[in-house]
Amino acid sequence: LAVGRPQRPASWWVGRRDQLLARAAVGTPRYVYDLATVRDHARMLTGTAAVDQCFFAIKANPHPAILRAIAAEGFGLECVSLGEIEHVFAHVPGLSPRNVLFTPSFAPRREYEAAFDHGVTVTIDNIEALRRWPEVFRGRTAWLRLDLGHGEGHHAKVKTGGVAAKFGLPLAKVDAFLDAARDIDLRISGLHAHLGSGIDDAGHWHGVYAHLAGLADMIGTVETIDIGGGLPVPYAPESPLFDVALWRAGLDEIKASYPRYRLVVEPGRYLVAEAGVLLLSVTQVVEKDGVRRVGADAGMNALMRPSVYDAYHGIHNLDRLDDTELTEFDVVGPICESGDVLGHGRPLPAATAEGDVLLVADTGAYGMVMANTYNLRALPAEDILDEGGIE
Ligand code: LLP
């Protein structure tokens, strides 16, 4: 490893094997989250001098204990629906509306009204809403979400910029938007851009800030610049580790060039992905036409990411972590779809058998919250590990 490159830390769950096996014995499928890991990741970002406020994109994991832990680290909470707004106020005691950001997409009119009533910061990303519902926005202050013309991220389905994406006001419409806003006395106090999810280039956010700051200088009323989330997680063994130091340095540098704006970031995955594991039980081990498959008691119903984005998650046999005789297996779920595969060709203990506990790693983000009851299978349970105890 080169000097100064971030090094991959050992996963928290390795030292918690017995505790996890005990929880699996209570029942699987089951997500388990380690709050210490959430806090560690939160602190990696709050330690950035250039960043004035961090918001956690709660869509990644809205578990109440996780929200409280992240809010206690000084984060605000970014919500994309009225359901999420009501959820954060219900579960985070003393949460100030100043620390809640509403960044909806194609939301119904009543959600904007309710968000203003709650006193949270509202982000708008099209002119049509202003023209159709002028009374909702008249005399208000809001942020404008922009499409900077291109998307980024780990998969086409999570790129949120460019012509193929439904998000954001294109730059060519900024003048028309500002005219429409002026007509109804709507003040734009923030500019926002989130180009996608799982962006490996640590310099990306620096560029977004520079772009938005240039626009903010022209607009004149802008106080805050929100450069979105999208910080990546090294899911696969060969994935590069995200260089937070480089990310910080880039923001420090660009903030020094445009010091007059409050800099806001809104990561989701980065805080919670590595803090979560999904525990499953092996149901059947089957060989067919030369392919060996390990079946688990949940698949795409508990974790959609592999089937939707071809996402990689490490899969380990928690009962046989030290076995050295390995065989390649496809790890599949019990759902009646061919896409119900959690991992292809994974080296797992050759002795893997019915009842063994499988651990699917790095599933704390977009795991449980995207789980479903397809085939009328039950949703996974959830546990929180904190200070050694289980909640
Ligand atoms: N801000 C906005 C406006 C967003 O739309 C998102 C995510 C975030 C922040 C947080 O992005 P993050 O830091 O977590 O990358 N289900 C997909 C990810 C969808 C992300 C949607 N928007 C997945 O499992 O990869």
TrEMBL record:
Record-stated family: Belongs to the Orn/Lys/Arg decarboxylase class-II family.
Protein name, per record: aspartate kinase
Species of the source: Novilysobacter luteus
